[in-house]
Structure formats: C-alpha cells, structure tokens
Amino acid sequence: MRLKQLKWAVLFLWELPQNLLGLGLWALEHMVDGPHPREFDKERLFLRSKRNAVSLGLFVFWAEGKNRYAVLDNNTRAHEYGHTFQSRWFGPLYLPLIGVPSVMRVFYSILYREITGKRWTHYFDGYPENWADRLGGVVRTKKQP
Prior knowledge:
By secondary structure, the chain is an alpha+beta fold. The chain contains five helices and six strands, in the order H-H-E-E-E-E-E-E-H-H-H. It has helices at about 5-15, 15-35, 75-90, 95-115, 130-135; strands spanning about 40, 45-50, 55, 60, 65, 70. Helix 3 (about 75-90) packs antiparallel against helix 4 (about 95-115) and helix 3 packs across helix 5. The radius of gyration is 16 Å and the shape is globular. The mean pLDDT is about 95.
C-alpha cells in the first residue's frame, strides 16, 4: 500500500463516526433531492445542499439562503470547512466535543425564534462556532438579522 493510500485509510478510520453519518446524509439527500453539486477540494468532499450546513468527516455539506431560523450566506462553506480541522484533531471525539455543542446552539436558535419571533444573532459568537469561523478564515463584520 502506498503512503498516500495508507494516510487516507487511517484518516477515514480516525473520523469513522462522522464519515458514516456523512455518507448516510449524502445518500438520504440524494434520494430526496437528487444529485448534489459536489467538488473535491482541500481533502474534503464539498456538497452543496438545499437545506443542510454540517461538516461530517470527509463530507462538507453547505447551503446558502434564508430560513426562519438562520441566514446561510457565502461564509457557510468556509465555516463548515473550519469544522473539518476540528474533526481531524478530535477524531472519534468530534461528535461529542464539537457536534453536540453545535447542535445545542441550533436547538437554542430554533427555540429563540419560536419564543421571541426573532432570529438569534449570536450563533457564531460561542464555542465551537467561533472557533470554526477562525479555522475556516471567516470574518463576520455584523450580526445577521
């Protein structure tokens, strides 16, 4: 086995939980929405999604647009790429250490919207989202309405 193939095998196994979830989400979205525009870049598979923005190992789903809970803008791809560094560093601990806090922020933003009628503009201000922004090179200049 060549060194590059060995590296890929080790990295795939190191990030196995998120790779399996990413593969499952890709398959699910493919069944529901059809093929996604995709690009292999920076050792990751970037998949433009209609609704999801999540980084799961090899798979980086990103979307643009507004919904009642969030504004997904041109920084979304870079932000999700920032999460890939966290995934590589933490491996199998990525989901409990990064994924769970991130999902909790999503739930909070949904509850905030339902209770106040306004979008929560501080999603990217706290852990682990502000860290993913820094790692992905995202600079946010103002709060999103």
